[in-house]
Specification:
single chain, mainly beta, 10 strands
């Protein structure tokens, strides 16, 4: 069964850091590009970052460039999002998925206080 499970969210003060993890099961993660997305209250889900199957190529939304880093560990079937210098505007539920998309997980909540 295809499953994506996000974890690592929580409450953090502005300027702090968090590391999110996404565990993939039911398919071969290393065959796919993977991305992180987020959905803030009352807003559409937006793309945050993307990583190639080998991890050698990454892309970032302008809003997180220089602060967030996406990485992956294919053997462990994990995709990470290191979030540094977090800002209150980063408050959202964070999701991961691959390309083409599989079923969405529950996401992990990140709440940033100023």
């Amino acid at each position: 069964q295809v499953q994506l499970v996000e974890s690592g969210g929580g409450w953090v003060q502005a300027g702090g850091s968090l590391r999110l993890s996404c565990a993939a099961s039911g398919f071969i993660l290393s065959n796919y590009d993977a991305s992180w997305y987020r959905q803030a209250p009352g807003k559409e889900r937006e793309w945050v970052a993307r990583i190639s199957p080998t991890g050698l190529t990454t892309y970032y939304a302008d809003s997180v460039k220089g602060r967030f880093t996406i990485s992956r560990h294919n053997v462990a079937r994990l995709v990470y999002l290191q979030m540094n210098n977090i800002d209150p505007v980063d408050t959202a539920v964070y999701y991961c998925n691959v390309h083409p998309a599989r079923s969405w997980g529950q996401g992990t909540q990140v709440t940033v206080s100023s």
